[in-house]
Every structure is written in C-alpha cells, then in structure tokens.
C-alpha cells in the first residue's frame, strides 16, 4: 500500500509552522522537500516542522530534513527546528546533519495566548521560570499557534 503524506503550512506569524501527517518514505519525501524548500524561500524568522503525526516507513527518507537543515544554514539562514519526532526518528536525526537543529518536543497547552517570560519571577516560586531559562539559553526562541494551542520553539547551541 503506497504511503500518503500531507503538509499543513501555517504562515500567519513571523514563524512558519509545517505539520506533517501520514507516512514518510522515499516517495513522499519529495513532496515534503518541495514544501520545505518553498517555506525557506519565503525567509520566515524560523521554520518549525511538527513530526508528531508522521510514521517513518523508510529511515532513509529522514534525509529530507538533513537537506532542509543544510539549505536553512546556507541560505536564507532561517532557524530550522524539528519537533515531536518519534524516538527512533529522533535518534537517527541526532546523528545526521539535521541534528544541528535540535529536535524538541511539542507541548500543547490548549491556550492560544501569546507567551512571554515573567518580568520579575518570584525566586521562591516552584514554577514560572521556564521561559526565562529558554530566553537565556537559546539563540532564538518563539511561539506559533497550532491547532488548539501553540508550539514554543527554541534554537539551542549544539555545543
């Protein structure tokens, strides 16, 4: 049975989010490559690729993300973030060229409210400092609406 994949592109903010749904194999990777290439050409502030709904049918097809990471690094220098890969895919991606764009997990909070680090968090509080840590450790970070919530992404140094 041949695989199908759909690419849902959201360009409503400075960050472009691409949600992939379906099976990724050597046949479907061509359409993924075409969509990612088009997104990079538009030069968003960052490109976030959500892999939560992807079934990897051929590990070699994951090379489409390494190719996109190379293109993003060379031109137009757009931060490229992969989120929610399956554990097997994350392992393969970490050892590939795409590993420079660190895979992150998507956290759906059910709120479309814009995220901001707390201005002056209570140092005794047990929560409320997560985005401050992200802001301090990341080269760039942001959020984009997705479905019933949002994706928060961060570009972290690979060293």
Briefly note the CATH topology name: Transcription Regulator spoIIAA
Architecture (CATH level 2) name: 2-Layer Sandwich
Percent of sequence in beta strands:
25-35%
Q: Estimate nothing, just give the exact number of structural domains.
A: 1
The whole-angstrom Rg is: 16 Å
Return the average pLDDT rounded to an integer: 80
Q: Could you give the order of strands across the largest sheet?
A: 1-2-3-4
Largest sheet: 4 strands, mixed
Annotation field: number of helices: 4
The assigned structural class equals alpha/beta
CATH class identity: Alpha Beta
Give, in order, the helices and strands.
Answer: EEHEHEHHEE
Summarize the structure.
The protein is an alpha/beta fold. The chain has one domain (5-155): STAS domain (Transcription Regulator spoIIAA, 2-Layer Sandwich). It is built from 4 helices and 6 strands, in the order ββαβαβααββ.
Describe, in plain words, how this protein is organized in 3D:
The strands form 2 sheets. A 4-stranded mixed beta sheet has the order 1-2-3-4. Strands 5-6 form a two-stranded antiparallel sheet. The longest helix has 13 residues, at 29-41. Helix 2 (63-74) links the parallel strand 3 (46-56) and strand 4. The chain has one domain (5-155): STAS domain (Transcription Regulator spoIIAA, 2-Layer Sandwich). Helix 1 (29-41) runs parallel beside helix 2. It has helices spanning 29-41, 63-74, 87-94, 130-137, and strands at residues 5-10, 15-24, 46-56, 80-83, 140-146, 149-155. The N and C termini lie far apart (42 Å). The chain has 159 residues and is α/β, with parallel strands linked by helices.
């Amino acid at each position: 049975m041949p695989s199908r994949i759909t690419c849902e592109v959201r360009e409503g903010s400075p960050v472009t989010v691409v949600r992939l749904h379906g099976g990724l194999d050597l046949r479907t990777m061509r359409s993924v490559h075409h969509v990612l290439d088009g997104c990079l050409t538009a030069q968003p502030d960052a490109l976030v690729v959500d892999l939560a709904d992807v079934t990897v049918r051929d590990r070699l097809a994951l090379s489409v993300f390494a190719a996109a990471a190379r293109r993003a690094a060379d031109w137009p220098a757009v931060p490229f973030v992969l989120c929610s890969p399956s554990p097997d895919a994350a392992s393969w991606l970490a050892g590939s060229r795409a590993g420079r764009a660190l895979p992150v997990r998507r956290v759906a909070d059910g709120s479309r409210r814009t995220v901001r680090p707390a201005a002056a968090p209570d140092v005794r509080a047990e929560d409320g400092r997560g985005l401050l840590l992200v802001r301090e450790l990341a080269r760039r970070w942001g959020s984009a609406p997705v479905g019933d919530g949002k994706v928060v992404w961060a570009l972290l140094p690979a060293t």
